[in-house]
Amino acid sequence: MRDLVPIGRFSRVSRLTIAALRHYDELGLLRPAHVDPDSGYRYYSLAQAGDAERIRLLRSLEMPLDEIRALLDEREAALRRRLLERHRGRLEERLAGSQASLAFLQRLLDEEVGPMDYEIKIRETPPQPMLSVRRHTSLPELGPLMGRTYGELFGYLGRNGIRPAGPPFAIYHDPDFREEDIDVEMGVPLAEPVAGEGELRGGELPAGPAAYTLHGGPYEEIGPAYQALVGWMQVHGHEGAGPPREVYLVGPGQAPDPSGYRTEIVWPIR
After folding, report:
1. Taking the CB of the first residue and of the last residue of the chain, which one, N or C, has fewer CB atoms within 10 A?
2. What is the CATH number of the domain that holds 29?
């Protein structure tokens, strides 16, 4: 016991609150070196201060607790590096989102954002073979999920020598806007039907009339395009005959600046 210190003193040494130390004990992340069997009081060894400091620093970087535990338990440097690189990627995604928000705010300050004049048109869409995947996600994870999913779709097409018949698209099946449990189907149009494999399913976009418009700029600013479509349908006596889809004519792969994105919104009508 001579080399042990009570939880209060260890809290001061480690700069972790007593509540945090108790929580980390419950999670098995940083267990006390000794617990008094009568009082239940926790004691820590000063040798644990190194782990406590690593936990404090990683939590300040918002690393999930389960990943911190895996990092502390891992003895292989390569695997520890992989865990840190995974979290770096997560932080980079957040940074990109913050930079996009700052850019939008700057456009507001510069009075560059106003109501875009959306031209609404109608066209008859023929039946269109497609390869698609339908998944559920949250709004923060939607972009990364789409990147991975389109990689899977184009990977299948490449392995099988199939060329897309147009740009990729996403169908939003929810009847309302959601931030969680978003039901989205990501697909690629094809010239001929395919069977697909696993989650990748061959299917067909239905034929029929559709209203459509073109949005230029970041995806975060696409809302007014939907508003214009809905307003146009109300004025002209139409209603939706199915979920809308976004066709990504120009996206991150072709335009480094989001202001260069071009997205067509297609809404089946009756």
Report:
1. N
2. 1.10.1660.10
| 171-190 residue pLDDT tens | 999 888 888 999 999 999 99
- Same domain for 109 and 48: no
Residues 154 and 225 in one domain: yes
- Say whether both 64 and 133 belong to one domain: no
- In whole angstroms, how far apart are CA 185 and each of 34, 57, 150? 53, 39, 11
Same domain, 239 and 215: yes
* b/e code 173-211 from CB counts within 10 Å (16+ = b): eeeeeeeeebebbbbbbbeeebebeeebbebebeeeebb
Residue 99: phi, psi to the nearest 5? -65, -35
In the prediction, which pLDDT does 114 show? 52
Closest of 266, 262, 232, 236 to residue 248, by C-alpha: 262
From 199, 134, 127, select the one nearest 165 (Cα to Cα): 127
Say which residue the tokens 């609404």 belong to.
120
Both 137 and 176 in one domain: the answer is yes
Band (268; pLDDT cuts 50, 70, 90): very high
- Residue 190, classed as helix, strand or coil, is strand
Q: Are residues 13 and 90 in the same domain?
A: no
How many structural domains is the chain composed of? 3
Q: Are 148 and 26 part of one and the same domain? A: no
pLDDT single digits (tens) 119-165: 999 999 999 999 999 999 998 899 999 999 999 999 999 999 999 99
- Answer yes or no: do 131 and 254 share one domain: yes
CA 200 to CA 213: how far, in whole Å? 28
Domain of residue 106, residue span: 80-113
Distance CA 132, CA 188 (A): 6
pTM over 0.85: no
